Amino acid sequence: MKILITGATGFIGSAIAKHLQSLGHELVLCVRDCSYAISQFPKAKVLPIDFNQAAHIEFWVEKLTDIDVVINCVGVLNAKQQRLIHFETPKALFSACQKTNIKLVIQLSALGVEESQTAYAITKKAADDFLLSLNIPAIIIRPSLVYASGSYGGTSLFRALASFPYFIPLVGDGSQLFQPIAMSELTHAIENFIETSPKSVVLVNAVGIEKITLAELFVSLRAWLGFKTVKIIKMPKIFIKIICKVGNWFNSPVINNTSYEMLAEDNITADFELQQFMQLANINLKPFKENLFNLPSYVQDRWHARLYFLRPLLRFSIGLTWICSGIVSLISFNTSISLLEKISISSSWDSLLVLAASVLDIILGVCTLINYQLKKISLFQIILILFYTTMISIFLPTLWLDPFGAILKNIVVIVATLILISINELR
């Protein structure tokens, strides 16, 4: 079959695309980052599509030529345009599917959207409800927590929390119930749904066979990663809420109010809905721990888990260093000018150069803090540090002997910036 998949480079979307590709289906992938998708799926047709600008039926009609199945995997936890991304554009896509007589539409939603009042849940449910109102063959899949050998988003956050040194921090008392489903089980279910396409719209809750608490989930993940057993500490809700508000301010894709709401409540389904899913998907489910420990765990998984919270801290510290450097230069304006005079710079330009350099440092720091064009900004920072260091080495070599290592620390900053470039990508 010819299958169009939106969000095909996401955590779930990429797994679905890989599985369907292995079965010999012809794929058309709608993504933002075409270069990455092409590298991962060289045999697929890749279309550059921004869901912020695709809320038109006519836009999708031409994309659906000869398409048999459409799978919508687009989802963002923290974005200003959630209604556009989760509802308006999918609405246009589903309407186009009806107009072009697509054989099957699969909508990836989320378990719990019926009860939650977050923007994520409200907009996801709106798309589900619209699809339910159409007279087309469709399946709305609402999965619980999905886990695999890799991780992204919520699963990365869970691994990071489970990997804390000395203790495991819990949101609330850790008694919240989850029904995690293995990625292999979800992709197998979708394979079977495609083979036995329904004649109308069907809604299923895709969950694992076992209900476990959040505390049990974290303990299992820690053991799977290979870390030693530690105590579990219940974190005050007010502390978690403050952290999530900071995450909102920095536009974090995971540490935000939506994540908190999803963690604070149970994420399970009724037993009859579990049986319905297993029957419709024609699959047998295995317990969480059995599936989890059948997956390999490598040192890279431990690195990723431990670096998860250090990555934003590294970016924050580098950005703050540049901002403070610029501010200090402005405060110590005369001292900065006297240093320039020793480099034999024309005195008529000294004040302007100090001012320009200080403002530039502050701008680079702010860009780093807000994660704007981070790779380009970081490379420019390294070039600037090398330039500063070279000039100092030529004209003020004695500063290398500074007992506080003012110039020696440039080496550390360069290495830290290179590390930030390497680990800043989230997928």
Which key features would you list for this structure?
13% strand; 18 helices; seven-stranded parallel sheet; alpha/beta; two-stranded parallel sheet; 427 residues; 54% helix; single chain
In terms of topology, how is this protein built?
Layout: E1 2-6, H1 11-22, E2 26-31, H2 34-40, E3 45-48, H3 57-61, E4 69-72, H4 82-99, E5 104-108, H5 119-132, E6 138-143, E7 146-147, H6 154-162, E8 167-171, E9 177-178, E10 181-182, H7 183-195, E11 201-206, E12 212-213, H8 214-225, E13 231-235, H9 237-249, H10 257-264, H11 271-281, H12 288-293, H13 299-307, H14 310-331, H15 333-342, H16 347-369, H17 374-395, H18 409-423
Parallel strand pairs: 1-2, 1-4, 2-3, 4-5, 5-6, 6-11, 7-10, 8-13
Antiparallel strand pairs: 9-12
Helix pairs in contact: 1-7, 4-5, 6-8, 6-13, 14-15, 14-16, 14-18, 15-16, 17-18
